[in-house]
């Protein structure tokens, strides 16, 4: 059975709490990125690039059974890890679940304080894109 979006966030917070240093937390994020795979049937087109990210990030999606499935890729491993972390939370969720969740978990795990301004901007650009897609399905 799939975890709820809140349970997934709680698990992420518990995972981050296991590590003592930010070096270990960054390594964990990069490990998440190593497991993120872009489906072979999708193209990494320019119209899928997220604006506002320093590194290239492609984000695509599809709707299946009232759940939005997100697909993402990036050339930079740390960014790929951040994307994988967001997808673990937001992918395969209903538009309502996505719109309901506030991203304050980023503060609770300490990411907001430990990312460079450009990475933080990119993370927020990814979140905004995910929310915009969910809103389009919710109102559409």
Count of helical segments?
7
Which residue ranges are poorly predicted, with pLDDT under 50 across at least 5 consecutive positions? none
The helix fraction, in percent, is 55-70%
Q: Write the H/E string, N to C.
A: HHEEHHHHH
Number of domains: 1
Q: What is the radius of gyration computed over CA atoms, rounded to a whole number of angstroms?
A: 14 Å
The first-level CATH class name? Alpha Beta
Multimeric state of these chains?
A: single chain
Distance between the termini: 29 Å
The side-by-side strand order for the widest beta sheet comes to 1-2
The name of the CATH architecture is Alpha-Beta Complex
Strand content: 5-15%
Mean pLDDT: 92
Number of strands: 2
Structural class category: mainly alpha
Could you describe the largest sheet, including whether it forms a barrel? Answer: 2 strands, antiparallel
Shape field: globular
CATH topology: Sufe protein. Chain: A
């Amino acid at each position: 059975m799939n975890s709820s979006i809140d349970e997934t966030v709680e698990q992420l917070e518990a995972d981050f709490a296991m590590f003592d240093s930010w070096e270990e937390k960054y390594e964990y994020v990069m490990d998440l990125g190593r497991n993120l795979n872009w489906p072979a049937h999708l193209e990494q087109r320019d119209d899928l690039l997220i604006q506002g990210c320093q590194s290239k990030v492609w984000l695509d999606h599809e709707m299946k059974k009232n759940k939005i499935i997100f697909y993402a890729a990036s050339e930079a491993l740390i960014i790929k890890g951040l994307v994988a972390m967001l997808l673990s939370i937001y992918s395969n969720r209903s538009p309502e679940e996505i719109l309901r969740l506030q991203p304050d978990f980023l503060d609770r795990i300490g990411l907001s304080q430990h990312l460079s301004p450009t990475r933080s901007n990119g993370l927020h650009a990814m979140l905004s894109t995910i929310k915009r897609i969910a809103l389009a399905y919710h109102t559409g």
